[in-house]
Records
---
Amino acid sequence: MGKKARSPEGQTAASLACEATELSSRAPVFAPGSVWLVGAGPGDPGLLTLHALHALHEADVIVYDALVSKEVLALIPEGTARVIAGKRGGRPSPRQRDISVKLIELANQGKRVVRLKGGDPFVFGRGAEEALALVAAGIAFRVVPGLTAGLGGLEYAGIPLTHRDTNQAVTFITGHMAGGGLPDAVDWQALSRASPALVIYMGRRHITEIASRLIAAGRLGSDPVALIANATLPDQQVIETTLEKCAEAEKKLPPQVPVLIVVGKIVRLRAGLDWLGALEGRLLLADPLDVKRQSEAG
Ligand SMILES: C[S@@+](CC[C@H](N)C(=O)[O-])C[C@H]1O[C@@H](n2cnc3c(N)ncnc32)[C@H](O)[C@@H]1O
């Protein structure tokens, strides 16, 4: 008999799988003619929720974004119809309205429709717009939350969203508007002062301007920055840099891949928490912020 993997709590992988099946059998009924907006998480399929996995198996058709990883798409049963509704910088993409119309059309045909989105459907994903279009059309829907890249991606990079010694607040920001520009509604002055930790989605194209606005608003050019590309995927890449050098550093990343920009002292904690790096031999520091030395000196 083969060896059974044991979780730290002592449960076998087989018994965990049984529990997953049991949970799945108690999962909500996916009624024909309804749409589930499902978060696919940042990429690693192990980060999908059980509800998401259940939805992928129950759906008649899956309408997915380009951001959904091929590893997650591989979990869709072979016979299930797939419709790509995604866009990847620069390439032509369906208009938002056309995607909503497609969802309504499929639901009206009596299909169980999964709308699969990268990360979480309601975080910079236009999930709310699509859900409101379903409401207007009288289509029943459900939302299956996913792990947003700004959370899961940072943790795979070894960067905590909060730490008592660095920040009491964290802000998620979009660096890109539907029209292509930098969002006007973002008050960089206020953010710079009020939020020690910034996690910027879709900021790649405007990284030079974002960095100079933050510096103009009072952040130091030496403020730590991390660029995280393809977070949680086998080809994840993390660059540690500073606000004044981040635009230059960004050029080293492959084109057309999703990138998060993280600004603030939380980035320094990576020297102690880069658990993925440690698996490949990186030595981790127990006191990456040098708190002990500073408190002794003080
Ligand atoms: C349209 S937003 C979608 C966000 C998604 N709904 C979420 O909750 O993560 C796309 C942006 O999310 C970020 N992103 C999503 N997945 C990522 C990943 N695996 N690695 C790095 N950034 C990612 C990037 O900034 C990308 O440009």
Note: The longest helix spans residues 13-25.
---
Amino acid sequence: MALQASLLPSALSALKEGKANGALKESAFLGVSLSENSKSEFGSSVFISNKRLNLSVGIRAQTAATTPAVNRASPDDKKTLRKGNVIVTGASSGLGLATAKTLAETGKWNVIMACRDFLKAERAAKAAGMARENYQVMHLDLASLDSVRQFVAAFRQSGRPLDVLVCNAAVYFPTAKEPTYTADGFEMSVGVNHLGHFLLARLLVEDLNVSDYPLRRLIIVGSITGNTNTLAGNIPPKANLGDLRGLVGGLNELSGSTMIDGGEFDGAKAYKDSKVCNMLTMQEFHRRFHEETGITFASLYPGCIATTGLFREHIPLFRLLFPPFQKYITKGFVSEEEAGKRLAQVVSDPSLTKSGVYWSWNNYSASFENQLSEEASDPEKAKKVWEVSEKLVGLA
Ligand SMILES: NC(=O)c1ccc[n+]([C@@H]2O[C@H](COP(=O)([O-])OP(=O)(O)OC[C@H]3O[C@@H](n4cnc5c(N)ncnc54)[C@H](OP(=O)(O)O)[C@@H]3O)[C@@H](O)[C@H]2O)c1
């Protein structure tokens, strides 16, 4: 596996001397190999109430667990149900678009495509053949906390209940030499992928709590690359949040460091760190809210979707070779369509009600509960990330 994972980077560095470093780092993304993929790790009495959640509730001693007893209609009653409302962030391309399309095509879901580029999202939905009555596009720029708050206000004004939230959008800057920043001055990768979603999810969990839909879920897309218990997660630079000193300092050079662990800026590592935050956040949501609300919290690794826009910042040669490398060498490649079906399954499959779980799929596209790395499942770190993030987004 190590040999497989090193093939493309070596080829790239031989061909493209000056960019070899970036290409090598990029391999961390790629290392989803066949055997990696096939590892076999892989109703609720939820009161329907207007009661606001106690968002300052401390961590409860609770592990990934079952859903509490239910007073709601069971998912089997869905013939008589209204359409579910699902918000998907970053639905203008890649995994988000494929998920939106899959859900919209069932006719059972109304998809709110929460996107930073309104027209791009409208065009993408149209090009994908999504029927107008099954989706709306709403503006959301996760690189601005004001925009997140405005989105939440606009969504609430629409009067629609919220049944499922999917935090999917992401940016990735593997070859960036210098950091870029969100409107609030956070390093962009962690600012968008983690902090923007953290505020969005923290605000909208209240809406999920009052939904009368039998299936209520909050899903945060994770990644194998943030998990150092995998081959891909072990290719440098590895994810490592350290003691969070950079996050505590606000993730910019003025206050200290652009990196969560306080180190030098590294775009590839910033992405992986942000994914660790995503997976820790999902588990912390689970510990704080699952028992009280019955909401299912989940994360997932959808597979290596080598063709998406996530790699747009990479060198052209990499973008050319990455998909065939994943298809024919590692065999870890997953099409956007297949990955969209996987995420749609986590949204809507009545059998995936277990909360606190990080889902993955084997080579036969069967879902299984995957193991997170030590850091990505560390409850103390999750608590600290939560508390620091609350301060940074103005909730504490
Ligand atoms: N591709 C893979 O192999 C892979 C593997 C594991 C996990 N993932 C995860 O899958 C998710 C989707 O990635 P993808 O591969 O589908 O990449 P993608 O095609 O680039 O999609 C990313 C989406 O995020 C949106 N976005 C970026 N910045 C935003 C912002 N500030 N505000 C709102 N939306 C923003 C993009 O909008 P624009 O269209 O306007 O750019 C785009 O719709 C990510 O969470 C990623 O970490 C991907």
Note: The mean pLDDT is 85.
---
Amino acid sequence: MDQELDPLWCGAAFGRVNAKFQERLKSIGIETVELGPPYDGAPNTVRMAVSGLDDPHSIAYWAGTSTQEVVKWLNAAPWALSKLALGGYRSTAYPYWQMPAIAVAGNTIEDFCFYFALSRMRERVVWILPSITESVLSGSKDEPKIDNEFHFATALANLARGDSQHHAGLAMTSLSLSDEQLEDVRDRIEHIGFRENLDCRFESPGSLLPSEPLRYLEANNASRPRFVSVPEEGIISLFETPVPKNFNRVNPSKHRWISELSISQYHLPRHSSLGWWMMGSGVTTTKDVRVSSAGPSYFCPHNFIMSGDDVETSVIRPSIKVPQPLEIFEVIAQSASLTCAVSDKGFYADESCRKFGGLSHLTSFLRSHEGRAIGSAFLDKSPSLKGDHSKGFLLDDRRYLDYQALKAAIGDLELTTKTIDDLLRRGVLYRGFVLKCQYCKRTDWFAVGSITDSFTCPRCHSEQIYTSTHWMNGEHPSWFYQLDEIVYQGLSHDMDVPLLALDRLRREANDNLIAVSELRYFDGVNKKPFIESDLNCVVDGILTIGEAKKADRLAKTEKEELAIVTSYLDLANRLGARQLVFATTAEKWRAKTLENTLQILVPGSIRLRILTHAELCG
Ligand SMILES: [Zn+2]
């Protein structure tokens, strides 16, 4: 006699219909038919639950019926009925065909919830029959027979082999079982399936969450986008919520749906505090409003229906605040009882980006030959021989360069002229003269706007008309160029490394990058920041933090390095960041540094990204 199939296992795959619901369906002329034993025998039920619509042909073969009949069964299951008038939408950015099938093992409530949620977020997710896990845990060595477990084992092996739509592969995971226990489960399944070779790998549950989950949207309504521009002040007021179109009557006290917005080129991170900040009010909770993988989403029609059954008037019309990049980090930090502020270095980087017209323009300059040449020429602090002005003047620790000196650094005449013109227009270089006071003999640089035919010495305050005795070389005074102080400060504080790292992430991002400069994070009232994070950005919706260095190591000593990695891990966990980046402009990271980092960041929900010279400067 067939063993009973676990009702929870079946219900999770097909949905359930209780007697009351059956009665109501009957009252509107819909008959319910029971599948499973004794109607068609459990084997088909098991196979349908495992491969479902992915493989109706082999189910039809085993059931001795037509493929169309199997598709009809599956489409009439209660779970399918609950998707009435909905379509499954998959992001084009998600390579679903490369994704392995997933088998979740374990009989705890956590295992079940993980399986159930995951099976709604992506296809080909299976819960290993609870009786199989149970027999592994109890050490049972029962000889296999042709029963539900056998059909499960063969159907799972079939799923793992892939098909014309999917690559082969199976990932096994569990919240309650150890890797050794998972190995036993795999061995047991192979044994039950009479030595079917089950080629599977073991993965942590966190790593299996899809970046772009499957979404069920109202058919023929989702593909009619409406466009709303985000006003300057960042608040979309009283957003007009779309209402369902495919139902003759929508009863606002019974019908529930979620409205979801996506903001073009501004992929916000999924974070519970952000949804509430953007759309929350006195009557909402973090369950009603949230940022999904697509963008801000909210529960409809409203959590308080006052009266009436007109859906158009009952539906919520939220005002949606779109956060500035820094606000995203401030809100998220606050939810972790932290505060954050842009550091000095971050301020220099922001201002430099603004001068160059954005991150991509600034970083392409920093990577260019002329950019590197100009940067090192202005940062050069080496003393000149008396009377030698080929490297300009070093006055008060700042270098001033004339055309000849810049040409010597860049090498090419045409490129030098073009670069100087461009940087003057951007306010990165300023023109002026280097003049020597005839009284106190002090040499200074004077911006062209600050002088007329005469100049005033800043030390002795003597006004004097400048002549060939005041400029020190040539028949005419030459222009000497000053590098903007903010850009100078940025370069001397190595702002180029985090900027190049951010630009690398921007170039790789499918969608876009939201970035702020270096942030200092403070814990409570502590005046000293507990960490300064060089990289703070959102890459395609993934909250990312990280360190950027010129050297090939994080710190001088081993102990300091370990402390840095630990603080970053701590910050990532508190913010809910899912990616940690370590970037260096050195050729590669020191092997021991990598080893230390990996030792602390055991594979888990935080992805580690290593960047080196080739990625940053290439
Ligand atoms: Zn003077």
Note: The chain has 23 helices and 26 strands.
